[in-house]
Backbone:
């Protein structure tokens, strides 16, 4: 089964992935994880350095170019780790996928149909879960332990101003796009402001339903 968790920056995706990892360890089931920008293209080749410099604002590239780089990352992850793991009967959880890239692209003025076409190669996840949160709450979460990045705040397309205020304004657009996408792709939308364990239980319940449909237990079987 291929599971994807997505949402705006600061929604708590990584926390939920960690809770799933702990659950599968307790069950004695292997779980493969795949993070955004986790392919060797990003880790070992020049695009990794370029994406980092774009993230902090030291490099300037147009939204289309960055989207191409992230599409290369997702394509590499699919072929190198996600598809092989599914063929072996393993469960894969993706910490961000095409949905956030598309939502950010639309927020940056890119055409929705162009983005959909670009990511037509992507494997459809068995379970799609969007963690939904007010960008103001997400901003407070982030600044409690690190600085909001240039890219997270949409500083490449937003008018000059306070980074936190720009984050809230930009991520509001991203959130709106993700909610629309959830309706289109049939994703479960969870309240990411609720306690992490409450969210985790909702995710487990959703996986159990999917597992029953697929003829397995939690985690199910790949198609």
Residues:
């Amino acid at each position: 089964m291929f599971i994807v968790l997505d949402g705006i920056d600061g929604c708590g995706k990584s926390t939920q992935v960690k809770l799933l990892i702990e659950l599968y360890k307790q069950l004695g089931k292997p779980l493969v994880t795949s993070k955004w920008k986790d392919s060797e293209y990003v880790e070992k080749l020049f695009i990794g350095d370029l994406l980092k410099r774009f993230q902090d604002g030291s490099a300037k590239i147009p939204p289309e170019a960055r989207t191409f780089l992230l599409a290369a990352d997702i394509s590499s992850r699919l072929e190198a780790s996600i598809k092989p793991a599914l063929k072996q009967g393993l469960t894969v959880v993706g910490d961000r996928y095409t949905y956030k890239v598309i939502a950010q692209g639309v927020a940056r003025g890119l055409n929705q149909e162009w983005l959909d076409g670009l990511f037509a190669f992507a494997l459809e996840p068995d379970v799609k879960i969007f963690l939904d949160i007010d960008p103001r709450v997400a901003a407070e979460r982030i600044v409690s332990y690190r600085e909001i990045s240039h890219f997270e705040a949409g500083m490449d397309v937003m008018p000059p101003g306070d980074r936190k205020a720009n984050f809230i304004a930009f991520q509001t657009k991203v959130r709106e796009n993700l909610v629309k996408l959830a309706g289109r792709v049939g994703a479960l939308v969870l309240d990411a402001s609720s306690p992490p364990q409450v969210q985790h239980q909702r995710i487990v319940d959703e996986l159990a339903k999917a597992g029953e449909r697929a003829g397995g237990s939690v985690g199910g079987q790949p198609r």
